[in-house]
Amino acid sequence: MAQLTDRSVQNLLAWAATDQYKIGRPMTVTLVTGANRGLGFETARQLVELSHTVYVGVRDVHRGETAAATLGARFVQLDVTDDVSVRDALATVDSAEGRLDVLVNNAGVSGFGEVDGPTALHVFDTNAVGIVRVTEAALPLLRKSSNPTVVNVSSSMGSFWAVTNPDRPEFNLSAALYSASKAAATMLTVQYAKSHPGIKFNAIEPGFTATDMTAGLGGGRPPAESAKTVVYLATLNADGPTGTFQDEFGKLGW
């Protein structure tokens, strides 16, 4: 995959804004989980600019409604750790749109700090089982799309290749539960791609990003920069890749 530049993104946004692009073209229906801040919020913003009908799935109603109003998106209450909440959220999208074209499984927690059973259950329930909950509920709607696409926000912290490579920044980081849950997220991506060949499933390493989740680590680039690759995978053509783990430069080993 070629590196995304500011100029290429600007050209894409400009083309999406033209009447030639919009006329006769159905709106792409997209759901982004955990979209009230950080990477999810910026991903949703960029997809709105590309004329997607974006649903922001957020656990907290006030934060979700505020984010949706700011973005020009639509809000659905969605807690990825709650089966009823997930089913209700997808039922809302179904009632309003009748299909789902793009799902971005972005919601996640860090799990840094103490390693114990309750923390492990919470981290895996959010970062891995949450993907299963939302994806399973979304599958019937995705099958109604002409170009169904799922992007799972993972991490190279879950890559054996990266964390054992002294030349990689992950080599010096320790986050057992987060890393293991993201390894699970990437494997789920591959297995879903194999089980559902008519739907594109790809996992993304968005890069070290300055968000509330990473505030304790210091540094990180703006979410707008990291969101570009998420948006790239969310807007693949029908013949685009599936079952991959990528960053902004292309496919990663894991």
Relevant CATH superfamily: NAD(P)-binding Rossmann-like Domain
Q: Reading side by side through the largest sheet, how are the strands ordered?
A: 3-2-1-4-5-6-7-8
Question: What name does CATH use for the topology?
Answer: Rossmann fold
Low confidence ranges:
17-24
Question: Mean of the pLDDT scores?
Answer: 89
Per DSSP E runs of 2 or more residues, the count of β-strands stands at 8
What's the story with the biggest beta sheet?
8 strands, mixed
Rounded to the nearest angstrom, the radius of gyration is 17 Å
Overall geometry: globular
The percent range for strand residues is 5-15%
Number of discrete domains: 1
Distance between the termini: 17 Å
| Annotated CATH architecture | 3-Layer(aba) Sandwich
Q: What's the CATH class, please?
A: Alpha Beta
Give the class from helix and strand content and strand pairing.
alpha/beta
**Helical coverage, percent range:** 40-55%
N to C succession of SSEs: HHEHEHEHEHEHHEHEE
Detailed description of the structure:
The protein is of the alpha/beta class and 254 residues long. It has a single domain, classed as Rossmann fold (3-Layer(aba) Sandwich). The protein is 45% helix and 14% strand. It is built from 9 helices and 8 strands. It has helices spanning 6-16, 19-22, 38-49, 61-71, 83-97, 117-142, 160-163, 176-195, 223-234; strands at residues 29-33, 53-58, 74-77, 102-105, 149-153, 200-204, 244-247, 250-251. Strands 3-2-1-4-5-6-7-8 form an 8-stranded mixed sheet, with helices on both faces. α3 packs across α9. Residues 17-24 have low confidence and may be disordered.
